[in-house]
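This section describes the prediction task in plain terms. A model, or a person checking by hand, is given the sequence of a single protein chain and must write out its three-dimensional structure as a string of C-alpha cells. No templates, partner chains or ligands are provided. The sample shown here is typical of the held-out split.
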Amino acid sequence: MSQLYHVLRRVISFGLDLYFVDIQSHGVENVPKWGPVIFAANHPNSIMDTMILGFCSERQVHYMARSGLFEHLPLKFIFDRCGVIPVYRSQDGTDRSKNASSFEAAFELLEGGKVLGIFPEGRNSQEWRVIDIKTGTARIALGAEERNDFDLGVRVVPVGLNYQDRDRFLTSVLLRFGEPIDVRKWKAQYEEDDREAVRDLTRTIQQGIEAQTLHVENVVVWEMARALSRIAARSYIGELVEEREEFGELVRKSEARRKSFTKGVINRMRFVDRAPQLSERFDSEQLLSDALVHELETKPLAFAELRASVRQYEDHLAQVRLRHDFAARHPATLSSRKEGAKLTVYALLVGPFAAWGFVHNVLPYQLVKVAARRAPDEAIRAMTAFVFGTLFFLSWYALIGWGLWVWNEESLVEASIYVASIPITGFIFLRYRKRVAGWRDKILARTLFRTQQNLVNTLFDERERLSKRVAVLLDSYLADRPERAEELGVSEREEE
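The expected answer:
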C-alpha cells in the first residue's frame, strides 16, 4: 500500500465516519488475502462508491477511472500515485484505441498479484437495480489469464453497494462481498471461442453482483417494497403509533429537538437509525420484492388491493404529519401550511359543483366503461369509448332536458340552463378529482376535523393489517417456491 494511498485512506475513513451513521461489510472472508483480484461492483453513488470500497478493503484497490478525470492536474497527481488506470470511452469523445495501454496496465497490475477495482456498469446505476454490465471486466480477467497460460489465478469478487438512502445525510451503507469467481474455469471455453467465453463470464459476474445487491426489475414493485419496509421500521410515526403519545407532548418534543440541533442530537440520530445487521435488512427487502413480483404475476388483483392499502396508509401518515406541522408552526413548514390551506379552500368551495357533476354524469360514464371493456380489440377500445360516449352522454342530457320540460313543467329556458350545467360541472368534477387526488396529502379538511388520537389509532390498525398481509404474502411465495424456502432455511427452522 503506497504512502499517499494510506494517508488518503485514513482521511477518507474519518470523513465517512462523520457522514454515515453506519458502514457495515458482509462476506469479507470471501476476499482473497493474496493473489490477483478484481472487485466488480455496482455503481449507485459515483465517487462515494470508490471511497467506501477502499475503506472496507484491507488491500489497496487500484481503480479504473474515465480518462476525463486525468485532465485535472491535482486529480492526475493523486491518481498516478494511487495506481488509478484511465479508461477511454467513446461517449467522452476520446480515442478508444488508447485503451490498449490501459488493458496492458491492468494486466501488469494483476500479474503483480494486486487488486483491481472496476464498476462494470460503466455509469451510475439506479439505486434499486443493476443495469447490464460491460464486457471489459471479463476481457481483462481472461486476457490476463491468457497471457499467463491460465495459471495466474485471477479471481473476480462480485461486490454489492447498498445504501439505505443514498441521497440522505447520516444514512447507512452495507457492502457485500460475494464468493470469488475463479477465471481459470473458463480456459477450455476461451480456447474454443473467446468471444462466447467473455459473454458467459460477463453473465456470471452480472449475476454475482445482483446477488449482492438489492435488485428489483419492476419500478412499481420497488416502490411497494420500500413502502412496506418503511411501515415496518421504527420511524417517526412508528414511535408515535407504538407509544401513543399525546399530541401536545409530541409538539413539545419536536420544539425541543428543533432548538437543540447539536452534536448530542446527531449522536442520538445515529443511535436511533443504526441497524444492527444491515445484511439481514437488505435480504428481507430482496425477499419482499421477489414475493411482490410473484404476487403481481400470479394474483394481480390481490397485488392491486395491497398497493391501494399501502397508499391509504401513507395517505393517513401524511395527515398526521400535516396536522403536526400546522400545530407546531415551524418556520420550515410555513409554505406547506399556506399551500395546504389554499388547497383546502379550493376543495371546500369547488366540492359542491364537482358533486353535482358527478351525480349527473356517473350513469353514462359507467355505461361507456362497460362498452369500452367489451371492445373486441384493445386497439379500438379508445374509439369505442369515444363513439359510445358521444351517444350515451348526448342521449342522457336530452332525456333529462325532455323530462324536466314535460314532466316537471319547467320552462324551456330553465330546462336548458339545468342541462347546460351538467356537462360543465362534469368537467369540473374531472379536474377536481385529478387535483385533489394529486394533492390529497395537503388537504386539511379531513385532517383538522379528526383528533390526533383518532388518526394514530387508524394508522395503528392499518399497520397491523398490512403486517399480517405481508406475512401471508411471504408464506404464499415460499410455498410456491420451495427452493427459495430451502435456501433461506425456513423448512429447517419449522422442523426444529
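For orientation: The two ends are 48 Å apart (CA to CA).
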